[in-house]
Amino acid sequence: MQGKTASSFDPDRPLSIFAYAYTSAVGVAILMFGPLVIGAYVDINGMTETQAGYLFSLEMAGYALSSALVFAIVTRVNWRHILLAGVFIAVLGNITSMYLHGYAELAGFRFLAGLGAGLLMNVTIVSIGLTANFDRNYGFWAVTQLIVGAAGLYLLPGRISVYGLAAPFLAVTILALLVLPLAKSFPEHGRDAGVTPNKHNRLLLGLAGLLGIFIYYGGQAAVWAYFERIGMAAGINPGSVGSILSASIVLAVFGASLATWLGDRLGRRLPVAASMICSAIGISCLWGVQSVYSYIIAACLFNAAWYFCLPYLSAIIANIDSNGRMLVGLAIVFPSSLATGPALATYVLNDVGYGPVLWIGLLSLPAGLIIMWKAAARNSA
Questions:
Q1: Where are the domains of the chain?
Q2: Start-to-end C-alpha separation, the chain
Q3: In 57-92, which positions are buried (b, 16+ CB within 10 angstroms) versus exposed (e)?
Q4: Which of 85, 127, 209, 349 is 20 to 30 A distant from 239 in Cα terms?
Q5: DSSP output for 194-251
Q6: How far apart are CA 164 and CA 213, in angstroms?
Q7: Biggest CA-to-CA distance, the chain
Q8: Euclidean distance between CA atoms 268 and 314, whole angstroms
């Protein structure tokens, strides 16, 4: 992104970098807890797996709508006001959901919770795009998300067994309220676009990058949404499944930290391609999984590769972007793919097994890589 900020605010202050990273972790928390939440919908609230999948996708649809709203207002509305609105909406949706149990009554409020969480995430994405070293800062952004996710996956299973879905919903509410004192650490506005060379080429590259990211991310989200159910179907006890998923998030922290350390030393194509190969191996380990060891390998490879790749995906768009609009497009793509992937997985799910879901995850890897290949060049713009 080019040009000067509308004020003297420094987006690279350490407290600001922390605020972006922590708030992004709040925005994505319910996704990180997704396997546990979907499992609780089925095991505690008595929903079918199809209902649970659609309810989760509905929350991601709220996420996607928030991105479309931010896309429309990002150049006209104070970003801190968007942030505060996100906190209020997320808290309202999650607190109300604590007292509801049925599919129909939860649907609207889970959509609302997703809308609030999406507003938080959008503000962090565009804010990091203003920083000088976005490759490194997107890595720190991902690491913080993973730390919060790992803590939740470790602590929540026991609480869910006692308190039901009130446990994850209350956890997200508390995390969201802690964003309030950080609001002044966010910029109020973006930067002026200035003169943009090769505008048409940038647009085409940006759109290709966004489409490739959408396909890849949606496929991985489809598999992640049913990771807990796959483990349960393999006969692994719920406590062990939660511990394994938590451990896999720790490995994902390593993956994201490695991306933070590497930055763009190897460019972006090689790290993205390598991560997708590891993802394919991890997903393949889930086919007919019958041992806890295969499940551990699958979970650890899957999450380490996914979160190693994530900072590079964000940096691909930031590298092309000249005025912030593409970054807002990225903020649309992430939640849209998170809504589409699990919904598609739910649609193809059958009584035979989770094979169709795994195929979605596998096929999304080469398809996404091919489409984003040109955009992922070091100096693509």
A1: 14-189+198-372
A2: 12
A3: bbbbbbbbbbbbbbbeebeeeebbebbbbbbebbbb
A4: 349
A5: ---TTHHHHHHHHHHHHHHHHHHHHHHHHHHHTHHHHHHHTT--HHHHHHHHHHHHHH
A6: 34
A7: 60
A8: 11
Residue 67 is which amino acid? S
DSSP H or E run through 378: none
- Nearest alpha carbon to residue 349 among 57, 44, 109, 112: 57
- Rounded Cα distance, 333 and 277, in Å: 22
Q: Over the stretch 57-114, which tens digit does the pLDDT of each residue have?
A: 888 888 878 888 887 888 889 999 999 999 999 999 999 999 998 899 999 999 999 9
CATH code of the region 14-189+198-372: 1.20.1250.20
| Measured CA angle at 198 (ends 193, 204), to 5 deg | 95
pLDDT in tens, 253-307: 889 889 888 877 787 889 999 999 999 999 999 988 878 899 999 999 999 999 8
Amino acid at 222: A
Q: Under DSSP, is residue 191 helix (H, G, I), strand (E, B) or coil?
A: strand
DSSP bridge pairs for 268: none
| CA gap 313, 212 in Å, rounded | 9
